[in-house]
Amino acid sequence: MQSDRQERISQRAYQIWVAEGRVHGRHEEHWRRAEHEIAEEELRLAAAMADRAAGTARTSAKPEGATAAGKPRAPSASAPRRRGMPAGSRAS
User: How would residue 19 be classed by pLDDT, with cut points 50, 70 and 90?
Assistant: First the structure.
């Protein structure tokens, strides 16, 4: 029984053979080309998964109260402030 990867290469080589007019005698070239295309596909998939994992790690590490850009949120206009004190000041 063929592995999943070997099966995908076989199917891709067949697609190449059909697309090129079903010319006999070029099966080795079609197989090598299919192997190359499947390998590139696997690399793109692995890179996308790594990017997604890195993005998840970055977003989960952002501090509480930060925006999606990672910057602290500005105080909202509806937040209560004490009269006569600058914003962000605390009464003792």
Answer: very high
Distances in whole angstroms, Cα of residue 83 to Cα of each of 5, 28, 78: 70, 82, 14
The model's pLDDT over 37-72, given as tens digits with 9 standing for 90+, comes to 999 999 999 999 999 988 876 665 555 555 555 566
Percent helix, strand and coil across the chain, each rounded to 5?
A: 55, 0, 45
Which of 19, 16, 39, 38 lies closest to 29, judged by CA? 16
The residues with which 72 forms a beta bridge, in sequence order, are 66
pTM, two decimals, is 0.54
